[in-house]
């Protein structure tokens, strides 16, 4: 007579996969998968203060004697453009939140534009993460209506793209997918305001053109906002190899 397997592993006191899965679902429902009021704490969540350097723009490139080294990687970075906007239903949202709130365009001294734009300010260097160089990026909304953007735990759908050797534009960063429905929500960039970020300055073996792209679908169609292209360097593996991610907690709904 076969014994029914115990729901618990008696050798380790750990739950079986079935029980672990049930506990995971229950914990996710109770705590909102991403921890509800948790604030995301990624190195590039907010633009850091610009270092005190004398930067000189030469032929589209930025050079300075005290700049940090550029980021040299052989994979696509996970998306790192985090932002937030106060929501009326914050108490009931299960998504992680960012402290990167919209700022007023008036008096910000940004390049003038009349439409929603991604502005890459490469002449304003700042640390992307400890030990690596980056530059200021802003998403501006000078229009008369709010810009609604879908987000996943406050991560906006913005990635770097680069031209491959054939000349085609391809993503060199990616947006990881969450298995938790509570991760998904909508952020609003109000009229006359902007979000500020820091993006990495890449380096590698391939000299090419690079740009930033905000792209998402909504009930009214597809929205695509592209920055002006600029010269850069990357590694070819950034077109195909993902950075990857291993969840270390039941509260982490990402596995890529």
Defining key terms:
single chain, about 260 residues, mainly beta, 4-stranded antiparallel beta sheet
Work out the count of structural domains: 1
Give the termini separation. 43 Å
Global shape: globular
Which structural class matches the secondary elements? mainly beta
β content, as a range? 35-45%
**Mind summarizing the main beta sheet?**
5 strands, antiparallel
Return the average pLDDT rounded to an integer.
Answer: 74
Along the chain, the helix and strand elements come as EEHEEEEEEEEEEEEEEE
State the helicity in percent bands. under 10%
Question: What would you report as the Rg, rounded to the nearest angstrom?
Answer: 21 Å
By DSSP (H or I, 4+ residues per run), the number of helices equals 1
What is the tally of beta strands?
17
Pick out the low-confidence regions: 1-31, 34-65
Structural notes for this entry:
The protein is globular. It is mainly β. The chain is built from one helix and 17 strands. Strand 10 and strand 11 form a beta hairpin. It has one domain. The strands form six sheets. Strands 10, 11, 15, 16 and 17 form a five-stranded antiparallel β-sheet that branches. Strands 6-14-8-7 form a four-stranded antiparallel β-sheet, with no helix packed on it. The protein has a two-stranded antiparallel sheet with strand order 1-2.
């Amino acid at each position: 007579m076969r014994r029914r397997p115990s729901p618990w592993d008696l050798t380790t006191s750990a739950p079986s996969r079935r029980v672990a899965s049930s506990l995971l679902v229950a914990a996710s429902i109770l705590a909102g998968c991403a921890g509800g009021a948790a604030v995301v704490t990624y190195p590039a969540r907010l633009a850091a203060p610009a270092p005190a350097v004398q930067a000189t723009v030469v032929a589209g490139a930025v050079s300075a004697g005290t700049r940090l080294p550029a980021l040299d990687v052989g994979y696509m970075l996970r998306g790192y453009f985090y932002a937030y906007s106060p929501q009326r239903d914050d108490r009931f949202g299960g998504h992680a939140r960012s402290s990167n709130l919209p700022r007023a365009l008036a008096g910000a001294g940004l390049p003038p534009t009349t439409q929603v734009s991604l502005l890459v300010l490469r002449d304003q260097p700042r640390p992307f993460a400890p030990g690596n160089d980056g530059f200021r990026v802003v998403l501006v909304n000078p229009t008369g209506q709010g810009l609604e953007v879908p987000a996943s735990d406050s991560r906006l759908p913005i990635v770097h793209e680069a031209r491959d050797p054939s000349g085609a534009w391809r993503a060199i960063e990616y947006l990881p997918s969450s298995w938790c429905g509570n991760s998904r929500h909508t952020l609003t960039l109000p009229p006359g305001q902007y979000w500020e970020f820091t993006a990495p300055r890449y380096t590698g073996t391939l000299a090419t053109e690079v740009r930033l792209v905000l792209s998402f679908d909504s009930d009214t169609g597809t929205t695509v906002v592209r920055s002006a292209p600029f010269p850069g360097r990357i590694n070819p593996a950034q077109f195909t190899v993902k950075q990857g991610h291993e969840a270390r907690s039941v509260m982490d709904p990402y596995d890529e």
